[in-house]
Design brief:
alpha/beta, Helicase, Ruva Protein, domain 3, 5-stranded parallel beta sheet, 13 strands
Amino acid sequence: MTTYEEQTNLTDLSATAEQVRRAVESVIEGKPEVVRLSLTVLLAGGHLLLEDVPGVGKTMLAKALAKSIDCSVQRIQFTPDLLPTDITGVSVYDQQRKEFEFKPGAVFAQIVIGDEINRASPKTQSALLESMEERQVTADGRTYELPRPFMVIATQNPVEMEGTYPLPEAQRDRFMARVSVGYPSAEAELRMLESHGGVSPLASLRPAAHASDVIKLIEAVREVHVSDAVRRYAVDLTAATRGHPELRLGASPRATLHLVRAAKAAAALAGRGFVLPDDIQQLAVPVLAHRLLPSAQAQLNRHTTEQFVTDIVRRTSVPDPYAAQRLRGY
């Protein structure tokens, strides 16, 4: 049966997440699913990639999510002349002390906003690899821990746009999910004109949670139960991408781990202490699609990785959706 402590944690999580959601939605009009997925990634302890054309609110969403939490925030504007040391930091020689002193870079924050990440060279982009995976930075033979919680929210424009570099496969694989913001509806755009016409709504946005609250919520999400059947379902989905004839690169084991972690967060946000196959299905496209590479023939046929993931989800057999409840006595 569900313990009192587990239920209390879920109740606290839902209440705090609801406050953060309302704060973000006071800035981002008409995109509830995008905001919810962003919160899911935050509570799963992952990193978020926002990809879309310019002007649809990617940076605004990243700023709103960062400002809704009372924590340290750094923004990195990725440009072709940005250097890796601008991100990680550099050792500077102190004339008085006669030794080198490490000056932390912009990555030393709890939430790092990487604006237009694919406008920097792949060499500069790779400066984030260690920090995103291991939550640390190694410089001059020394390792420096990053603060907790640590989340990278990066925005990028589609690769076919001028002045962009494609993200390396290893970089894409470290983002838990990729979200497309999309154009707003006519009604949402009208409300945006009214609310953004004078002062930016970011100016009046106040934090809805503290960094310590987010750490507790991330720990609570890790306790959400995942049955053997649901874990097997996640593995079946990612394994199907590796053997797909129109994909030259399938999902990695890290992708499977991210999929299950995100499903735990989604279940917790729904007030459940267990993961259902529905959670896995709803997150399959945002978690898996950006990691896949289509074959040359698939690109010629204009098939997208999102289509391949959707087809794999449709064809993969689904386990008993209520097995988790029976195992835990819900």
